[in-house]
Description:
The chain has helices spanning 9-38, 55-85, 88-125, 128-131, 137-253. With 254 residues, the chain is mainly alpha-helical. Among the domains are: 1-130, Topoisomerase I, Chain A, domain 4 (Orthogonal Bundle); 140-174.
Amino acid sequence: MMQRTTRTWEELRSSARMAERRLEDKIAAYTEFSRAQTRNSVAVYDEENPQEETADEKELAVDIENALALLSDTIDEMNIVVDKTSVKTQDAMLQRYRELYFDFNTEFRRSMSALQEKRDAQKLFGNRAHTGHSDDVEMDSLLNERRAVDSSRSLTSNIIEQAMATRNALENQRRQFTSSHGKVATLGSSFSGINTIVAQVRRKKMRNNTILALVIAGCVCFTLWWVVLSKIKEHDSPIQMGGPAILKILEVSN
């Protein structure tokens, strides 16, 4: 495992995508080639010139090995970056490429193993594996067992492919749920902003109502003060007017 990385996350992601595209194309071609070889029951085995790997097959296998090594190194570098940053989106992408690497490597090894087993069977049984006729009863029994094993292995491979397809569908659903969760979180944030605006409007309205109540209370207090003051003036006026009249009466009496 690499101890440090000098590439940025964008460079690592670009490298991983390139390796992913290469592996998708080349493993699909290698798997198709392997299936064509393992299902070919017409070719006759030549003991003097046994069928070996072709140049194209070797080149394709080497390209796949190199692409797997590139993806593995990129995953190691991504792991270093994620350990430093702890970003959830980067961690999810790292997990996705780990799963892709496991799938690509498993499918490639399975195809290579099936192809090698086909060649080994041809070397072991020769043309009897194709004609189905032999004077050796024990050999015929072994051939029948081998056909049964091949059939079971083919059925198992189909089941594994269906399981992989189901897992891919579940992963797509998980990504959709994750996307939906993000949208719900965005809506929640929007509602939070709306609630903040409503609270601000409510506080402003309460402040305006408080100011209006204080103004009305001041007006009422002023009105009451004016009414009371007017009553007091009306009560004091006769006394002030009666003072000079009393003085005149006293002067006349004297």
